[in-house]
Amino acid sequence: MKIEKIETFFVSRFLVCRITTEDGTQGVGESCYWGYPKAAEQTIHGFADDLIGMDAGNIEHIWNYIWRYNSNFRGNSIGGAISAIDMALWDIKGKRLQAPVWDLLGGKVRHKVRAIAQGVNVETPESASQDAKKWQDQGFTALKFTPMHKNWPDRTYSDVLKSGVEIVAAIRDTVGWDMDLAIDIHRNMQPHEAVAFCEELEKFRLYFVEDPIVPDSVVAMGEVAAKMQVPLAVGERNAGVWEFREYAQLTNCAFFKPDIAVAGGITGTKKIATIAEAHHVKICPHNFQGPIATAANIALAVSSPAWDVQESVGEHESPRRDMVDEIMKLEDGWYTPSERPGLGVEFNEAATEKFPFDPARVAPPIREDGSVALR
Hints:
Elements: E1 3-11, E2 14-21, E3 26-31, H1 37-51, H2 59-67, H3 69-72, H4 76-97, H5 101-104, E4 113-118, H6 125-137, E5 142-145, H7 157-175, E6 180-184, H8 191-201, E7 208-210, H9 218-225, E8 232-234, H10 241-250, E9 255-256, H11 265-278, E10 282-283, H12 291-301, E11 309-311, H13 320-323, E12 329-331, E13 334-336, H14 351-354
Helix pairs in contact: 1-4, 2-4, 4-11, 6-7, 7-8, 8-9, 9-10, 10-11
């Protein structure tokens, strides 16, 4: 089971890594360093010469080897590359042993995984509440959204808070109290603004508030968390167990948001989930990319006591749907784990021609005075 070949593919900006062993067994993984996927791709190829010839079954050894490669540099291009490689190795191990990855991780602690829907049109409270009702009618019992208008940098502090509260109020009034509501501020507030906003939102019994400020500093996030009375969710931009250890100790957060395709793959995220369990923190992973990453998430979700809800994206739509032969089953707001060996998905290489590389170019908003907007 020695590694013979490591390949990378782009489907739009989704980066897929495929590893082939000497006996022809193939495994696939995915990277979610979506802003700079070419950097993650080059990092994968930078590891390749050393990985070829290694035993694909020694996943923990390989994970540590490439994490410490070149004297242990850090960053999401490295985390994204390691994540994709790690998923592919777990996929290979499952196929070799003819077992789903979740079975290799200890079996099921749950037989299905609750999904949290994402996204509503927040142009008006009415449009937001209408979209929320659509998700509820589809069977979802949890919803996450960003209650901030696209032109938030041009609005006054008071108006940003007022309009945000109106959107949350309209959604809560529409879906009632049986649906869990979470909001994602998307790092768009200064600490004092986030604290004031969260104070006004306490009455709506939010499931969590995600990324109220930029994740530049765990200490700064802890200072905000100390003043918040609503549950905090953090971690989608972080790679490695060490930053999550600091979040657990310094922020008293309620949820970790690791992205399995940037935080170290299945091996790394399992370690993060163990830290979460030890600190009574729940896992609601960031899940923005494609169906390979979702399959890896579900494998961990059904085997980890710390897992809570799974972010849901439109995997039935192109280009995500074209990436694999079969997406994870999602019905009435619940994911069902695959019984197929490995991750339970097979990469569709033809999708690379149908959806060529599409680089991300998400420029930050500019305020009226010409500065980069961060409130």
